């Protein structure tokens, strides 16, 4: 029985960094920490799922300043529930304000949001409405 608020079809996550080695950085593979995922077994559920990097831009395009970069979860990374994801365009580097800091007394604020979408495919009309910011509050990232 659905509640009045509806069902949420996504889970929030954070862009931690890019995949890296001791010296090199690989910007085409991003490391994403998904809320509520703490081990490799739980991370395997998200393999192949769509990921949307949602952010607000200054300039308005087609009536909205909300932009989306789509990607896909490719594999788990380590044992703590972090996953690797590849996006159509490389993501911008994580801003310092998005990362928690022990020195800051104020909570970090970032205009960038990352969602992991459960459903494999949405109709194109839904993708268009997400881009334009016209999705209702229950399923909006």
Quick structural summary:
It contains 2 helices and 6 strands.
Structural class label: mainly beta
Query: Helical element count?
Result: 2
| The CATH H-level homologous superfamily | translation elongation factor selb, chain A, domain 4
What sequence of helices (H) and strands (E) makes up the elements?
EEHEEEEH
Terminal CA distance: 23 Å
Query: In the CATH hierarchy, what is the class?
Result: Mainly Beta
Question: What portion of the residues fall into strands of 2 or more residues?
Answer: 35-45%
How many structurally independent domains? 1
Overall radius of gyration: 16 Å
Question: Which strand order do you get reading across the main beta sheet?
Answer: 1-2-5-4-3-6
Helix % is under 10%
Task: Note poorly predicted spans.
Answer: 99-110, 134-141
User: What is the mean pLDDT?
Assistant: 75
CATH topology: Thrombin, subunit H
Family: Belongs to the eukaryotic ribosomal protein eL33 family.
Protein name: Translation elongation/initiation factor/Ribosomalbeta-barrel
Keywords: Ribonucleoprotein, Ribosomal protein
GO biological process, one term: translation
Provide the descriptors you would attach to this structure in a database record.
flat, six-stranded antiparallel barrel, single chain, 141 residues, Thrombin, subunit H, mainly beta, 6 strands
Task: Describe what this molecule looks like in 3D.
This protein has 141 residues and is mostly beta strands. It has a single domain, classed as Thrombin, subunit H. The protein is built from two helices and six strands, in the order ββαββββα. Strands 1-2-5-4-3-6 form a six-stranded antiparallel β-barrel. The longest helix has 8 residues. The chain is flat. The C terminus is likely disordered. Belongs to the eukaryotic ribosomal protein eL33 family. This is Translation elongation/initiation factor/Ribosomalbeta-barrel.
């Amino acid at each position: 029985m659905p509640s009045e608020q509806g069902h949420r079809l996504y889970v929030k996550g954070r862009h931690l960094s890019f995949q890296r080695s001791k010296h090199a950085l690989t910007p085409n593979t991003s490391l994403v920490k998904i809320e509520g995922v703490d081990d490799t077994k739980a991370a395997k559920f998200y393999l192949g799922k769509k990921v949307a990097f949602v952010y607000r831009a200054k300039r308005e395009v087609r009536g909205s300043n909300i932009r989306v970069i789509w990607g896909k979860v490719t594999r788990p990374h380590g044992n703590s529930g972090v996953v690797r994801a590849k996006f159509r365009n490389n993501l911008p580097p994580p801003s310092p304000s998005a990362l928690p800091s022990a020195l800051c007394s104020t909570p970090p604020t970032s205009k960038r949001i990352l969602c992991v979408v459960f459903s494999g495919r949405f109709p194109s009309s839904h993708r268009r409405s997400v881009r334009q910011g016209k999705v209702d509050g229950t399923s909006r990232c």
